[in-house]
Amino acid sequence: SFSTCSPKVCIVGSGPAAFYTAQSLIKARQDVEVDLYERLPVPFGLVRFGVAPDHPEVKNVINTFTQTAKHPRCSFYGNVNVGKDVSVKELQQAYHAVVLSYGAEGNRSMGVPGEDLAGVYSAKDFVGWYNGLPSCRELSPDLSCETAVILGQGNVALDVARVLLSPIDILKKTDITQPALEALAESQVRRVLVVGRRGPMQVACTIKELREMVNLPNTRPDMVAADFEGVTEALKDLPRPRKRLTELMLKTAVEVPGEKEKRNKASRFWGLRFFRSPIEILADPDTNRTAGIRLGVNKLEGSGEGARAVLTGEVEDVTCGLVISSIGYKSIPIDPSVPFDSRKAIVPNNMGRIEQAAGLYCSGWLKTGPTGVIATTMNNSFDTARSMVEDMDSGTLDVSTARTGSQSICALLGKRGVKPVTFSDWEKIDIVEMRRGEATGKPREKLLTVEEMLQVARK
Ligand code: FAD
After folding, report:
1. Tens digit of each residue's pLDDT (9 = 90 or more) over 43-96
2. Is 115 in the same domain as 243?
3. Which of 202, 309, 399, 430 would give a disulfide with 298, using CB separation of 3.0 to 4.6 Å?
4. Which of 255, 250, 214 lies closest to 231, judged by CA?
């Protein structure tokens, strides 16, 4: 039968996955309308709250997202917590399709004794603190110790190490929050060890982030040359990106490139430590604060990317007052009606189609797990949009009967006392933040509480 109604799609979240899915859908079909529902009053997810303050170039994707948000067939509804303010079932009744793109807001825990001691933080919270995530505002980490141990060797671990050791003159020109800037200016942390379970050939970081560490002013790399035994011989068989990364590590570990004299003046150190797993966080018996960490010494079984770390039984204690675990983010279920694989911590899906749930899709870190850069998220979001367009074209996704869309959802929210923040409301926040930043030579000074954001949005 002939139908003039346009497909109405709802996306949960407003990070890269949400925006790239929306962009792709709008481009693929001239009739589709897309609404984004975001828990916070401000958009862009980890681009705002994850990406390091000294990586402004990465945040340029915000320009593209803004274009999408301003498209006549796209709307943003911030300050709407899906699963709480409105259920996924209710969204499904109002829209032809619902895409879950709410990321990975949970945290993988180390599962070792002492994990809850003062002085132990997750990288997720630490990053949220310096980036102004409202829920992490109260973290106020104690930086009065000399040594910090970071567990995990991915890019997030290196972001944290870099922020801990960066000269304050660099940080003060970024959009890092003022409280974090002040705390880091007073920081006593001189030495940061970035600890991994496996060896140099298994690190999860990329060369850009490692190079930033190597080139960080007023710091000196401090590696253990013995960790690199046999690495030179293995280089030739590595795929190119891994080879270049390993070469840089090797060079840093064994020769401290000709700059030794200059670097000897450096007052701060960092180093990668390999073949170590956390066994226990050790407490100072008087203060009951973190005083060290007991690491188990591992050996590798197998080789290459698939090598497994196996405890040897030997242990090593490292004195430190700060432990930051950077062993991964994790998605969490937000609505009991949505299938969830709690072992893999993702929504089970086939090319973005949520299994056994017609009309329900997913994209981004919720779909793939919390790995990869924004470009990876972009590609998997495009894949989800492609699946949706295929389903609309084939009729698997029925878009022939009209749906109420945001009209009924906003009515529902109104009844529940929830007032969404529109994209132009966000632009008011954006302007205030940029203006505040201008006063201190920063690109922006972020508003730190939801209350303040809402106040500015409703002016
Ligand atoms: P997110 O960006 O997390 O977006 C999810 C959104 O959903 C958030 O806005 C959240 O508030 C919202 N949400 C959550 N729950 C709900 C709910 N119940 N209702 C409504 N909304 C909800 N990539 C790079 O390319 N370069 C980098 O330098 C870089 N740095 C990074 C640094 C860190 C610390 C981290 C963690 C990641 C970094 N990445 C970087 C990776 C990049 O951030 C991710 O690939 C990308 O953000 C994943 O997108 P997403 O949309 O799936 O998730």
Report:
1. 999 999 999 999 999 999 999 999 999 999 999 999 999 999 999 999 999 999
2. yes
3. 309
4. 250
